Amino acid sequence: MPEGDALHRAARRLQALVGERVEVETPHPRAAVTQIAERLDGRRLLGVEAHGKNLLLRFDGGYTLRSHLRMSGRWSLVRRDSARVGRPWLVLRGTEHEAVLWNGPVLELREAAVRRLGPDILARPPDYDAMLARLRAVDQRRELGEALLDQRLVAGIGNLWRAEALWAAQLSPWLSLNEVSDDELRAVLAESHRLMQRSLGGIRSARHVYRRAGRPCPRCGEPIRSRGQGDDNRIAYWCPGCQRGPSPPK
Ligand SMILES: [Zn+2]
């Protein structure tokens, strides 16, 4: 019977696939009816962990697959396209390996509340394509600074890093999305990731604009400005001298 340590071993083996976009198949007819393959195929596997007697596999888009092994279930990790006999419940196929679930009697796909969250800015690597797609799917008259704080578009950026990332990318929070190119959006997302990753790693970076209203911009010397933005009226900080874009509406 699979015990906790067997689950932890399975979780460790499956780490080989974490970060990859996986091809998903459910060869066993009882698994096929779950439509798990249709919903997970091509998604990125973000994490695998043993939790109690369950193995939890997190995918982008907010999906979590729960696998309980009961008495007979077993996960194995083999080379991609290895020969096999029989029909496993589930196959997750990456570029080099595939994870195969045999006799997995309990397989449940959850779309938790996190489904409504955008891709995680701290994922390694972050899914910039998915963030861009979400940022482009909303009303393009929305302001860049406000959109960056919308957790349904990109999850994890707070007020401090919004201000610093926009300064680093030299873009005003008051630009509307339709005034910003895809490359510029990618640049500000990449700056957010870089700054937040450094901060997580314990490296304290200098604040250039955040809570520095009225003081000179370290890059161009113009006084930093601040103003509430969006429905939540979170305070945006920016330099009108070197961050491209308009002033806030009156
Ligand atoms: Zn400046």
- Based on DSSP secondary structure assignment, what is the total number of beta strands? 10
In round numbers, the mean pLDDT is 88
Strand order of the largest sheet: 1-6-7-5
**Strand content of the residues, in percent?**
15-25%
- Biggest beta sheet attributes: 4 strands, antiparallel
In helices, the fraction of residues equals 25-40%
Rg calculated over all Cα atoms: 22 Å
Q: List the ligand species.
A: zinc ion
Q: In terms of per-residue confidence, which ranges show pLDDT below 50 for 5 or more consecutive residues?
A: none
Structural class: alpha+beta
Work out the helix count: 7
Give, in order, the helices and strands.
HEHHEEEEEEEHHHHEE
Distance between the termini: 68 Å
Estimate the global geometry from the Cα principal axes: elongated
General description of the model:
With 250 residues, the chain is α+β, with helices and mostly antiparallel strands. 26% of the residues lie in helices and 22% in strands. It contains seven helices and ten strands. The strands form three sheets. Strands 1-6-7-5 form a four-stranded antiparallel β-sheet. It is elongated. The relative contact order is 0.11. The model has no long low-confidence stretch (mean pLDDT 88). The chain binds zinc ion. Residues 217, 219-220, 222, 239, 241-242 line the site of zinc ion.
Structure described in brief:
This protein has seven helices and ten strands. It has helices at 4-14, 29-32, 36-40, 128-137, 144-148, 159-168, 182-200; strands at 23-25, 45-51, 54-59, 63-68, 74-79, 90-93, 97-102, 106-111, 225-229, 234-238.
